[in-house]
Design goal:
This protein has 10 helices and 38 strands. It is α+β, with helices and mostly antiparallel strands. The chain has 2 domains: 247 residues, Rossmann fold (3-Layer(aba) Sandwich); 266 residues, TolB, C-terminal domain (Neuraminidase), CATH 2.120.10.30. The protein has an 8-stranded mixed beta sheet with strand order 30-31-34-33-35-36-37-38, with helices on both faces.
């Protein structure tokens, strides 16, 4: 006989998925590579060490423990574009990495003496930063994207530069390509004679309008004779990305120039751009960070590509034959695949699914070999056996719902409450937490996330909304947010909650919403301008869009031109959609979480809305964390924010008490 479930109200269920479990055991993944022996090197961020980035090296024998490459006192992380990525590069037995504390580049041996040796000069205040490095053996140098803050009072200067690997730390890197506002993806041809790169300028973001260029690497190492491969036609708006050279010397890249989806294209020297595999699928992701890689080459012919693409929120792994034009699926259980690279006939990628946390996975593509076509998990963000926790996991399903625009629909990943040991009273419906993802040009993932399961295992329903403007559905869907930020995202989050309530999945009187960064803005705008939700939580969100324009960093400094424009209405829309100006409309409780070192959404944003709400008499709470930036990295703060958000909602929407032993913080205008 099965175990009898305990009847307990939704939201009050007991769960072993504690906030401490969520915060302390889940590591971040910052990229991966392989050394000369094919052993994996990866970067993991550790909440238990305040988010410190540590390079790890796969054990020499199957089942042996990995080794730490990064010595104490070093933290592998770059601040280019503030969001970073591409913080290290591996070549044979050497790794070059960016150190967070000083943003200098260091060279380190993977084997033997691992003492890091500086490669770049020391500058005050992390004034010069580097990312996306590739080795150039012809000149014994690293080609990088550089961001230079040394000139005060103006925007930092971005360029592509060369860093000597000879160990002369005081040698100034040499600029190779400059003149545009931003650069990414410097990539050398197999013979080292050509350099490809992606560039763009204000007011565009990399998913709006970019171009791909190719230049000749001269005998003195300089870049000459630049040619625009894609994005140079003023009459064609395209986002071109991820240039990579094939073994035969053809350039393969991704662009949305044709059907509005990021598809694969090829270019050969002296030739024209050709579409390779036109389909309504996305073969890349928005370039928020460096180090993105969605395809690679394998096999002896030089004609074989392995790639990952997304359709309607699901990733697929496939091979593509350049000679025949055929696309063939590769079987995998993973539904969220990115940062793919190839070593020999093995493809490595970061991945997850509804039953797998973020992992590094290897698949052998060589037919006839032992293990060919099978998924091999090399690393997991949790690193523990999940079997005991499976009774507490909720499996998401995609929900398509009508938006406020006639004939349009949007999507969400819906997680019903799940706990193998509890059941709610028969007539009760669960409270709902709607999450508006950050970006806003991003998308919600179905990778098993303990932070989501924290809610569902306690009896909450959870909806992760891919509102209009999200990626993964093509340019037209992505551009629904152009000029409409604060309207489309807000309406879609409301429509999702209303749809779930209408079909009986959730309690219409206990609808909550939260979000981080841009999602925090959507949360605040929803609570101020709509009356769908009963309470909300904003984590490092935006309350005054004008302050965001004036205070934010270079990479996003013109982002709002598209989200709130065009220019003739930009100022009006900026004011009209800022929650801070309309707090007289706010009538439901809200909790705010903010890092005090946040350079992307400065702390004064949260303080302004907190003070205004407090003076108005609305139940409000503000939690500030020392040493945190844009996104919480310390385990204790991840735990605290998760516990306090749930406790806050339980107190203000009523109907249950949380089962966990949590000391609640004071809620102004509620506990007085």
């Amino acid at each position: 006989m099965g175990q009898t479930k305990c009847e307990t109200p939704y939201g009050a269920w007991k769960s072993p998925l504690t906030a401490e479990f969520v915060s302390g055991s889940s590591k971040r993944l910052g990229g991966a590579a392989v050394d000369s022996d094919g052993r994996l090197v990866w970067l993991e961020g550790r909440p238990s060490e305040a988010g410190r980035g540590v390079l790890m090296w796969e054990g020499a024998q199957s089942g042996s423990f990995p080794e730490e490459i990064t010595p104490p006192g070093f933290n592998v992380r770059t601040l280019v574009h503030e969001y970073g990525g591409g913080a290290f590069a591996v070549k044979r037995d050497n790794v070059v990495f960016s150190n967070y504390a000083d943003q200098r580049l260091y060279k380190q041996s993977i084997r033997g003496d691992r003492t890091p040796l500086p490669l770049t000069p020391a500058y005050e205040n992390k004034a010069v930063r580097y990312a996306d490095g590739i080795f150039d053996g012809r000149f014994n140098r690293l080609i990088v994207v550089r961001e230079d803050y040394r000139q005060e009072g103006v925007e930092p200067v971005n360029d592509i530069a060369a860093v000597s690997l000879n160990g002369e730390a005081n040698l100034e890197p040499v600029s190779l390509v400059k003149g545009k506002d931003f650069y990414m993806f410097p990539r050398l041809s197999p013979d080292g004679q050509m350099l490809a790169w992606m560039e763009w300028s204000h007011p565009n973001m990399p998913w709006d309008r970019t171009s791909i260029w190719v230049g000749k690497v001269s005998d003195d190492g300089s870049i000459t004779n630049p040619v625009c491969v894609a994005g140079g036609d003023e009459g064609v708006v395209e986002s071109a990305s991820e240039p990579q050279w094939s073994p035969k010397g053809d350039l393969i890249f991704v662009s949305d120039r044709g059907n509005g989806f990021w598809n694969l294209y090829s270019w050969s020297v002296g030739g024209k751009v050709q579409s390779l595999c036109p389909m309504e699928a996305e073969f890349t992701r928005p370039a928020w960070i460096f180090g993105i890689s969605s395809f690679g080459f394998f096999g002896d012919s030089g004609d074989q590509i392995v790639c990952a693409y997304r359709q309607r929120g699901v990733s697929h792994l496939a091979t593509f034959d350049l000679s025949s034009g055929s696309l063939s699926p590769v079987k995998t259980r993973f539904t969220d695949i990115y940062n793919l690279f190839v070593h020999g006939n093995e493809v490595y990628f970061s991945a997850g699914s509804s039953t797998d946390t973020l992992s590094i996975v290897k698949v052998c593509l060589a037919e006839g070999k032992a293990g060919a076509g099978e998924d091999t998990v090399l690393w997991s963000s949790l690193g523990i056996d999940l079997e005991p926790y499976k009774p507490y996991f909720s499996t998401p399903r995609v929900v398509e719902f009508a938006t406020k625009v006639e004939g349009e629909t949007a999507f969400a990943n819906f997680y019903p409450p799940a706990n193998g040991y509890f059941v709610a009273p028969s007539r009760e419906r669960p409270p709902l937490l709607v999450r508006s993802h950050g970006g806003p040009t991003l998308e919600a993932s179905t990778t098993l996330d303990p932070a989501i399961q924290y809610w569902t295992s306690r009896g909450w329903a959870f909806a992760d909304v891919n509102y209009g403007g999200s990626t993964g559905y093509g340019r037209a869907y992505r551009e629904r947010l152009n000029g409409q930020w604060g309207i489309v995202d807000v309406n879609d989050c409301c429509s999702c909650a209303e749809h779930l309530a209408k079909i009986g999945e959730v309690d219409p009187k206990r609808l909550c919403i939260d979000g981080r960064s841009a999602g925090g803005y959507t949360t605040m705008a929803t609570l101020v301008f709509k009356d769908t939700f009963s309470a909300g939580a904003s984590l490092y969100g935006v309350s005054d869009l004008k302050c965001l324009i004036s205070d934010t960093h270079k990479f996003e400094s013109r982002y709002l031109d598209n989200l709130l424009g065009p220019e003739d209405v930009l100022e009006k829309n900026t004011y009209d959609r800022s929650p801070i100006h309309f707090l007289e409309k706010l009538s439901c409780p809200m909790i705010l979480f903010q890092g005090l070192e946040d350079k992307i959404v400065p702390p004064n944003q949260a303080r302004m809305i907190y003070e205004a709400a407090r003076m108005k008499g609305v139940p409000i709470a503000l939690v500030e964390y020392e040493g945190e930036q844009h996104g919480f990295r310390k385990a204790e703060n991840i735990r605290h924010s998760l516990e306090q958000e749930m406790t806050f909602f339980a107190r203000v929407i009523g109907g249950f008490e949380v089962a966990d032993d949590i000391v609640p913080i004071k809620i102004d205008n509620f506990d007085d």
